[in-house]
Automatic annotation (TrEMBL):
Residues annotated as domain Flagellar assembly protein T middle: 116-262
Name this protein carries in UniProt: Flagellar assembly protein T N-terminal domain-containing protein
InterPro entries, alphabetized: FlgT_C, FlgT_C_sf, FlgT_M, FlgT_N, FlgT_N_sf
Matches recorded under Gene3D superfamilies: ABC-type transport auxiliary lipoprotein component, FlgT, C-terminal domain, FlgT, N-terminal domain
Domain Flagellar assembly protein T C-terminal as annotated: residue spans: 307-381
Keyword Glycosyltransferase set for record: no
Organism: Pseudobowmanella zhangzhouensis
Length: 383
């Protein structure tokens, strides 16, 4: 018999989607059906359900729940692997409605951020063309389109160097520095069906020509060209700035000062200066990949049609038929002190991957329960 399940709410800090929780209070709800009048058993099952949901969402892995005593979870009732620990826990509310018991718990959970989720999906990034701050710098060599060529080579470096992340989409627009912000990151991530946003701006492309010295005529007079870039990595769901790096280097500019170059040409990118720029992009890909290594991968719901749900994760991200996923919603709000908080609402019904495509998949309820209140832009995460 199919039943409609209620959403369970999990209250946590803003950084939950940015990284596994390393410390903090989580409030979660669980529910269970009273069978044969045994309310105590239903109460225990509801509590265990809430505990598991909070721990798994925080990045821990629970083996078993043994007992609950007088509304306080004792220290020997949980066996948690090295990926998480519970400092304290208590039951804060109980509700009996018909034959359904709902229990709310509050837990102080510590999750070891050094332990990554095994076999997690690839995290997806969207980037844009890189704006050139001083366009007159590009006049030397005519490399006005270098900001358009750069993200293509960045994607290649991610494919070669990154183990946990990939550039899924390049948005053909160059956003100025004042538009490379959290609000634009959230909009861009939603548009591109990506988890993270990487902004790059080119601040310096100047050329330095050695001064001629007749007494040192034997010295190389080849000019040097600089490249200084500012990079920002955002969480596409919360708008949180995860990383900001400035990259700066220079190398010889081996071309004639009058020569106008194609910004996409192998001749440019295989030159000393081009090789230096590729090395910078490779380092950036490695740094971003390390930053995202232990952050859980998640995707978005793109379409709901009856019991079938389409998501924006697929073969390229490592999704396979039979994988089980957690549905959840993200709601942000300001508290009384003006601090931005996030409410994560977990759906109690697991979904299972039924079909997989290149960058998408079709999922359905894993246990034939009714999937109510699911909508586009809800999130999914691997269990």
């Amino acid at each position: 018999m199919r039943t409609t399940q209620l959403w369970r709410a999990v209250w946590i800090g803003l950084t939950m989607l940015a990284s596994p929780v390393n410390a903090g209070w989580i409030e979660a709800q669980g529910s269970a059906e009273v069978k044969q009048g045994n309310q105590q058993l239903a109460r225990q099952q509801a509590t265990e359900q809430a505990v598991r949901q909070a721990l798994l969402f925080a990045g821990a892995s629970v083996n078993s729940v043994q007992r609950v005593t007088n509304g306080l979870l004792t220290d020997d009732m949980l066996e948690v692997r090295a990926s998480g620990d519970i400092n304290s826990m208590e039951i804060i509310a109980e509700d009996y409605s018909g034959d359904i018991v709902t229990v709310s718990i509050r837990a102080d959970i510590f999750a070891n951020t050094d332990v990554c989720r095994p076999g997690d999906y690839q995290k997806t990034l969207v980037t844009t063309w890189a704006p050139i701050k001083h366009k007159d710098h590009a006049t030397y060599g005519g490399i006005f389109d270098i900001g358009k060529a750069l993200p293509d080579y960045l994607r290649r470096q991610f494919a070669a160097e990154a183990r946990h992340s990939m550039v899924k989409h390049i948005e053909p627009i160059a956003l100025t520095d004042d538009l490379q912000n959290a609000e634009q990151a959230v909009l861009l991530a939603q548009k591109a069906d990506s988890q993270f946003v990487l902004f790059i701006s080119i601040d310096d492309l100047s050329v330095e020509t050695p001064r001629h010295n007749s007494l040192a005529f034997w010295k190389d007079a080849t000019p040097s060209r600089y490249v200084n870039m500012n990079t920002q990595l955002y969480n596409g769901a919360t708008g949180e700035l995860l990383m900001e790096k400035r990259l700066a280097s220079s190398d010889l500019w081996e071309f004639d000062w009058q020569e106008q170059l194609d910004s996409f040409s192998p001749r440019l990118w295989q030159s000393r200066w081009g090789q230096m720029l590729q090395h910078q992009l490779a380092n950036l890909a490695i740094q971003v990949d390390e930053q995202l290594a232990c952050i859980p991968a998640y995707g978005r719901v793109t379409q709901v049609s009856g019991d079938a749900i389409n998501i924006d994760l697929g073969k390229q991200q490592g999704v396979r038929v039979g994988d089980r996923l957690q549905l959840f919603q993200l709601q942000q709000f300001y508290d009384a002190s003006g601090e931005l908080n996030s409410r994560y609402v977990l759906h109690p019904v697991e979904v299972e991957v039924k079909q997989v495509f290149t960058n998408s998949a079709l999922v359905m309820s894993a246990d034939d329960a009714l999937l109510a209140n699911i909508q586009a832009n809800d999130f999914v995460m691997r269990r």
